[in-house]
Specification:
Rossmann fold, binds NADPH dihydro-nicotinamide-adenine-dinucleotide phosphate, binds (2Z)-2-iminopentanedioic acid, alpha/beta, 2 domains
Length: about 400
């Protein structure tokens, strides 16, 4: 299981607005197809390399198994930096990427979606090029626009799902979101809708960040303002002060964990919380850390959270809502139907609560009561391992 079935590396040439030829690297690691077609996001960020795509792809195997939907694990992306690029440059880049990627994917083979730096705009351009090259309209990507096969609630799903999961874990431990101070790192797709749902469940989100710095608003951050800044204007989070003059901004994103909170939800990127951050959280009386970003905590931070007696949820369990809704988008595309927002959201909530209980049950069964990380690894592993054995060892 630790050996990818295929790892595809390719060149992505494109022409910028000044007429210069640029070349980026593209990756798709198709890790495991035992329980369904490869499935997982594409990340555009200058830090992307094979090692990062491999760890994300491996985690995706276990995450997708936990959703209970038939999806194998994959991840891909490019070291392309979308920041500061024009719409046309983004379009040309996506078209060039798909000009190679299209021969490796398909609705029953591999179904990419978004991740850091890849949202509805990028999925649209990628999907359009796939369609042109294959002369087919199929659900070969998820996270599509609503007018061309996208699912309602896919945009909200990762953030909402994170809060449904955290709520189930909190309740199992005699707590709720009501009246809690919540700190959410990041201000992208996952963070924005985690804010919306945490607020709806009775929490108050007092701090959010981007890679430049973080904002603190003691009155609670309205997710709609962040959505305007990030989704509509593609601007920096410090401009929040133009909308809410009473708030404050601190340069540098790492310090966000010094803001006192009851609930911490890292939703930006991997290794964004270390053991020193956890010490600050414990000092401020934090009761739980729920991962929205993939592998948010360093191994030392996870140990510190567990030793400190805080609740902890690993990303492969608590951020599975995004890919779960992607699985629901695949079902809708195959059936040529579209479900209402309420229907997808209700299924998402059921799936997330189910994942929490599957992890808690597996942990208990294997003598690690309360260790949701161990439970997630065990429950995900068993499902995939059983399928691999049943399908026979060689190809
Ligand atoms: P977005 O691109 O929408 O937002 C990412 C946010 O994190 C931005 O605020 C960005 O700041 C910040 N960020 C990104 N990289 C870094 C970095 N190296 N250091 C500090 N801050 C950083 O991505 P998503 O919200 O989609 O993804 C966030 C996390 O959630 C990732 O770990 C992703 O893998 C995970 N995830 C996403 C899912 C989805 O459906 N989108 C599903 C499951 C997990 P800036 O704008 O300044 O770069
Ligand atoms: O990390 C993830 O689970 C995602 N980026 C979502 C993947 C998907 O296929 O929807």
């Amino acid at each position: 299981m630790v050996e990818p079935e295929q790892a595809i590396l390719f060149r992505i040439p494109w022409v910028d607005d000044e007429g210069n030829v640029r070349v980026n690297r593209g990756y798709r690691v198709q890790f495991n197809s035992a329980i369904g077609p490869y499935k997982g996001g594409l990340r555009f960020h200058p830090s992307v390399n094979l090692s990062i795509v491999k760890f994300l792809g491996f985690e995706q195997i276990l995450k997708n198994a936990l959703t209970t939907l038939p999806m194998g694990g994959a991840k891909g992306g490019s070291d392309f930096d979308p920041k500061g690029k024009s719409d046309r440059e983004i379009m040309r880049f996506c078209q060039s990427m798909m000009t190679e990627l299209f021969r490796h994917i398909g609705p029953d083979t591999d179904v990419p979606a978004g991740d850091i730096g890849v949202g509805a705009r990028e999925v649209g351009y990628l999907f359009g090029q796939y369609k042109r090259l294959t002369n087919t309209w199929t659900g070969a990507m998820t996270g599509k626009g609503l007018s061309f096969g996208g699912s309602l609630a896919r945009t909200e799903a990762t953030g909402f799902g994170l809060c449904y999961f955290a709520d189930a874990q909190l309740r199992d431990n005699g707590q709720t979101f009501v009246g809690k101070r919540v700190v959410i790192s990041g201000s992208g797709n996952v963070a924005i809708y985690a804010n919306q749902k945490a607020t709806e469940l009775g929490g108050k989100v007092v701090a959010m960040s981007d890679s430049s710095g973080y904002i603190v608003d003691e009155n609670g951050i309205d997710f709609r303002v962040i959505r305007v800044i990030k989704e509509d204007k593609r601007d920096r989070i410090k401009t929040y002060l133009d909308y809410v003059p009473g708030a404050s901004y601190v340069e540098g994103c790492h310090g966000i964990w010094s803001v006192p909170c009851d609930i911490a939800m890292p939703c930006a990127t991997q290794n964004e919380m270390d053991e020193h951050d956890v010490a600050l959280l414990i000092q401020s009386g934090c009761i739980g850390v729920f991962e929205g970003s993939n592998m948010s905590l360093t191994p030392k931070a996870i140990a510190a959270v567990k030793n400190g007696g805080l609740l902890y949820s690993p990303s492969k369990a608590s951020n599975a809502g995004g890919v779960a809704a992607s699985g629901l988008e695949m079902s809708q595309n195959s059936g040529r139907v579209s479900w209402t927002f309420e229907e997808v959201d209700a299924r998402l909530k059921t799936i997330m609560e189910g994942i929490y209980h599957a992890c808690a049950d597996a942990a208990e069964r294997y003598g690690m009561n309360g260790d949701i990380q161990a439970g997630a690894n065990i429950a995900g592993f068993l499902k995939v391992a059983d399928a691999m054995l049943a399908e026979g060892i060689c190809g």
